[in-house]
Design a protein that fits this description.
The chain is an all-alpha fold. It is 84% helix and 0% strand. α1 crosses α2, α1 packs antiparallel against α4 and α2 crosses α4. The longest helix is centred in the first third of the chain and has 34 residues.
Length: 100
């Protein structure tokens, strides 16, 4: 069971880092939307292409036209925090019980 615990710990650590990176990418995209950047800039296009799949599901629940403000980044960040606080901690707890 020691090997399984270590495997779960490794996967959980990678997921934790990935969620942290996704969190920062969403924050950067939200900040970019405040300054109205050049949409043809490669860096801006990168942030839009990377974060759009993460924000689209939240836009279905809260369309922008209803309130005139895109608050999908807030919901995406809250969802990432939930995953980190519940899912990641649960996986770490399972790994520790297995001897990882």
């Amino acid at each position: 069971m020691f090997v399984v615990g270590n495997f779960i710990t490794a996967i959980t650590t990678i997921l934790d880092y990935s969620l942290t990176i996704a969190n920062y990418l969403i924050i950067i995209r939200a900040l970019l939307s405040w300054v109205n950047p050049d949409p043809y800039n490669r860096i801006v296009q990168f942030f839009y292409k990377v974060t759009e799949p993460m924000l689209t599901p939240f836009r279905r629940f809260m369309p922008t036209y209803a309130i005139g403000l895109d608050i999908s980044p807030i919901f995406a960040i809250l969802f990432i925090w939930f995953l980190k606080l519940f899912f990641i901690r649960t996986l770490f707890g399972i790994a520790m019980r297995l001897g990882g």
